[in-house]
Amino acid sequence: MEKIIHTPLTEEKVKDLKAGDTVFITGTIYTARDAAHKRFIDSLKKGENLPFDIKDSIIYYVGPSPAKPGNVIGSAGPTTSYRMDPYAPSLLDIGLKGMIGKGIRNKAVIDSIKRNKGVYFAAIGGAAALISKSIVKSEIIAFEDLQSEAVRKMEVEKLPVVVAVDSKGNDIYELGKNEYLKECEKCQK
User: Fold this and answer.
1) Is the pTM higher than 0.85?
2) Which is nearest to 78 in space by CA: 157, 8, 134?
3) What's the half-sphere exposure (Cβ side, CA atoms, 13 Å) at 28?
4) What are the residue boundaries of the Fe-S hydro-lyase tartrate dehydratase beta-type catalytic domain, all occurrences included (predicted)?
5) What is the pLDDT at residue 182?
């Protein structure tokens, strides 16, 4: 099913999303990869504020390439999400509602998504140029020294993603594998 959502990503918006749904996101999202996530957690341990209000926010795991003249941003394809798994539960516990990346998440992250009524979206790897067309504004807001991995505030219009793990913990990677195995069993009979 196709759905359109606007940020902020509230619990009310998340509850109706199901694993496998195609979603188009419009509004403000933030970018961060593993180095920035480590800094987030270090800041929280010191009692410091994060560089943006994480409540009901979405973090896109991306390190975009530099923009060509006349473009807002370069290619902006998703990073493999498991690299953020050590940090994601802590951020979900303080209000993060959504994450965008690619690939599977570990049990601790899925449990935290369920506990905090969040969602994990998958963006299509290999579609970086297409995805970048949905980004209408981008500005670095923190950790400029990380260069392409600096934290950015982005405005997006109809950013295409798929619900990979919904707020009930349904995981499209597990569901897909199970469906495939059922079909294989039928073929062997």
Assistant:
1) yes
2) 134
3) 13
4) 7-174
5) 58
- Joined together, the tokens standing for residue 80 give 């493999």
**Hey, what are 150's tokens?**
């600096």
Q: What gap in Å lies between CA 35 and CA 177, rounded to an integer?
A: 31
Yes or no: is domain 2-188 CATH 3.40.50.2300?
no
pLDDT score of 66? 87
Q: What is the pLDDT of residues 104-125, one digit of tens each?
A: 999 999 999 999 999 999 998 7
Q: How far is CA 99 from CA 5, 81, 102, 159, 182, in A?
A: 14, 9, 10, 13, 30
Percent of the chain whose predicted confidence (pLDDT) is above 70: 90
The confidence score (pLDDT) of residue 189 equals 63
Task: List all residues 6 or more positions away from 78 whose beta carbon is below 8 Å from its beta carbon.
Answer: 60, 61, 62, 100, 101, 102, 122, 123, 124, 125, 131
As a whole number of angstroms, the distance between CA 66 and CA 56 comes to 28
Rounded distance, CA 136 to CA 2, Å? 22
Using left for φ > 0, alpha for ψ between -120 and 50, and beta otherwise, residue 151 falls in beta
